[in-house]
Amino acid sequence: MTVLSALPTLAALLAEAPAPTPAGSGPFAVVMTTFVMLIVLWFLIVLPKKSQDKQAQKLLDSIKINDKVMTTAGIIGTVVSIDRDGGEIVLRVDETSGAKIRFALGAICFVFNKEAAKEAKEAAKDKQAKKK
């Protein structure tokens, strides 16, 4: 058998042979890549969501009667009553007629806090004084 006659057989054997794998592409590398991606997703999605949930719960816990609040629908009113167990809040939305609307407690997205507004005004005054 000559070398030229053995070339087709050699080519067929090489075609059936598995291709060499690049370094670092074994099963361990796949598992590690998946693990790293899950950790990255945890830091990008889960932790910020937990932080937002804590902040929203803190906001809802700070609501008291006669606070001025805004709902997720953009309705602004004054708190008349709060039922924390039932998850309901009643807002007075019209001062002249005394119209009241009942909302789910979770619908409150912002509290117009008088103390915070005063602190913000004072901070703005201090900032302007520092500029001068």
Features:
single chain, 132 residues, alpha+beta, SH3 type barrels, 2 domains
Number of helices: 3
CATH class assignment of the largest domain: Mainly Beta
Q: What is the mean predicted local confidence, pLDDT? A: 82
Indicate the CATH topology of the largest domain: SH3 type barrels
- Strand order, main sheet: write it out: 4-3-2-1-5
Structure description:
This protein has 132 residues and is α+β, with helices and mostly antiparallel strands. It folds into two domains: 20-62; 64-131, SH3 type barrels (Roll), CATH 2.30.30. The protein is 52% helix and 20% strand. It has three helices and five strands; from the N terminus they run H-H-E-E-E-E-E-H. The protein has helices spanning 3-16, 27-62, 114-131, and strands spanning 68-71, 76-83, 88-92, 100-104, 108-112. It has a five-stranded antiparallel sheet. A hairpin with a 4-residue loop joins strand 1 (68-71) and strand 2 (76-83). It is elongated and about 110 Å long. It starts with a helix and ends with a helix.
